[in-house]
Amino acid sequence: xxxAIGIDIGGTKIAGAVVSADGxxxxxxxxxxxxxxxxxxxxxxxxxxxxxxxQAGCSVNEFAGIxxxxxGKVDRAAGIAVFQNNLPWDNFPVVAKLKEHYPxxxxxxxxxxxxxxxxxxxTAEVEPGELLSYVTISTGIAxxxxxxxxxxxxxxxxxxxxxxxxxxxxxQAYMRLEEAVAGPAIARHGQQxxxxxxxxxxxxxxxxxQGNAEAERIIESVTQTIAYAIDNMISLLDPHYIIxxxxxxxxxxxxxxxxxxxxxxxxxxxxKDAISRLRISxxxxxxxxxxxxxxxx
Length: 297
Description:
By secondary structure, the protein is of the alpha/beta class. The chain contains ten helices and 15 strands.
């Protein structure tokens, strides 16, 4: 069975694993990200790759390649990390630098949300011609769509669902979706409506579970606003699969049912079959690694 190395680089940790053709992961490695310099991050990336090979008991050249997911803006074709707001890489030539160490390997980099979408696509039973859209709701919000194994890129800035404008009932204003319902926004609503009992996003969900009326108001409003954005996605793309990931959704998977209920009130009758296509990721936060590895298998 063909195998590859999948890497997910974030501002707090670098994760890596061996990815098999069936989507399974072995020989997982996690290290806190050393963001002291661009070279420090790169050297840590090399260390993670070498650690994976050591655990797997084989040479790096025995793998089909290395796929790497990065936050921020990525020049996929040139293999350059253009800008990452939580990493000290500025137009850093990731692929060229890695090729100095692994000249024979196929090496691919992409945005981390795109890699997560590929991970979902790789493990779902997607038929030829079917469109899969992955939506992540966490500290930020973004989406990526895959059809026939190809990322729908547009002119290069597609998938920025968090940048779309919606009406936030809690703020009584139009704003970007990310400003209204991402994790920090939920915490902000909690601090404004509940007070000092709320320090972080998790506190709002804990209070919701306890039946706190203001927390219920926040979560109901947030899910309604998410539903408006998904309504737009359905109207524009009508994906065969809409898969939710990111910490807000994965830690609270019941939110998908609430979004579905809200969509039942907004979609046209002819569109309502889309509700059955909503689902939570089953890859337990590993979709980025799976997707990265799948790109070189």
